[in-house]
Amino acid sequence: MSNPTLTEPAAIVLVTTSFPICSDGSEAAGVFVADLAEALSAHRPVRVVAPGKAAGSETWSEGVEVFRYAAPSKPLSTIRPWWPADLGHLFRVVRGGLAATRDAVSAGATVHVLALWALPSGHWARLAANEAGIPYSVWTLGSDIWTLGRVPIVRSQLRRVLRDAHACFADGLQLAEDTRRIGGREVEFKPSTRRIGVRRSVPVRAQPPYRLLFIGRWHPNKGVDLLLEALGLLDDSDWARIESVAIFGGGPLAPQVGSGVLALQAAQRPVSLGGYLDTAAAEKQMLCADFMLIPSRIESIPVVFSDAMKVGCPVLACPVGDLPQLVSEGPCGRVARNVSARAYADLLADVLASASAAGYRDGVEAMAGRFSVERIAAGIASRLGGRDDG
Predict the structure, then answer these.
(1) What is the pTM of this model?
(2) Is the pLDDT of residue 2 over 50?
(3) Distance between CA 125 and CA 56 in Å, rounded?
(4) CATH number of residue 77's parent domain
(5) What interhelical angle do 279-287 and 303-310 show, nearest 10?
(6) Which of 145, 163, 277, 308 makes an SS bond possible with 292, Cβ 3.0 to 4.6 Å?
């Protein structure tokens, strides 16, 4: 078992399935984990267990070391266990992730293991921490609770991981309550958010035509197909109030997204399409947008929401997860009446005709103040072991 010494401050080990590999923007949650690791390293050394092209270790930054386990090139969230090829990928990931977690915990003095997210990261953290005789904690995502939590056998494992943890966090308000019901324990809300290194120099517009932006995975949960259908329902008077609609990302709905954008372009609509964006490119796009589009079907608090707040961009969202509460608290945007293409089209038409993007400035600024990676990291470091001055 590793113990803190006077010459070697005890580290926090972060275990995750979300961490940058190619720095191409394909892992939005991974950017948050990288930023969190760097912010935590101001308090303690950090070792990160993360997916990679091959197993191995590397220095990420001063105070942050990464232990990689081999993972498929596609996001782990897209693995389908009922497909033979994907089942093989899953088996190798589970085996490799546990081995990397054990390596990270035994690489030096370790005070705590923090799993991001509950499964399979929490399972690896639980086993490795118990073997080392140190505590572990778990941070849940919506996919942990609202997707995996619906599978009876998996739900039992999820409950065990949550129940035995020293502390449990959730990145959404409703998610924290749902996690509490499964784990039967206290769950603390901690938003997942990333650093934004730029500030808007040119304010959002006070009147149309507006620039609209979507950045996200092209997956049914993220509603990019709803967005394309909604755009197709807008009439000429609505489009007269739109300067541009830019759609960036990638994922399993790529063929549908590509054909949908081509159809809109054929109708002379100002819609453009691009791939995944790295952090700098995403920030540049947000600085040019007047409204961020979040048409998700399933969501807690997406990272793109806090990104938009930090660059001063109001959002237009579907009423899912915590978005209705957060958007209304600002107010920092608008929410559709329900989750459908028709409702989202009606929202767009109404906002384009009657709202001012600049009118949400105060609400957006107030909401941005609630999301700080440094503040979150300081709270976690204190909760999981505090500053090591040894």
Answers:
(1) 0.76
(2) no
(3) 18
(4) 3.40.50.2000
(5) 60
(6) 308
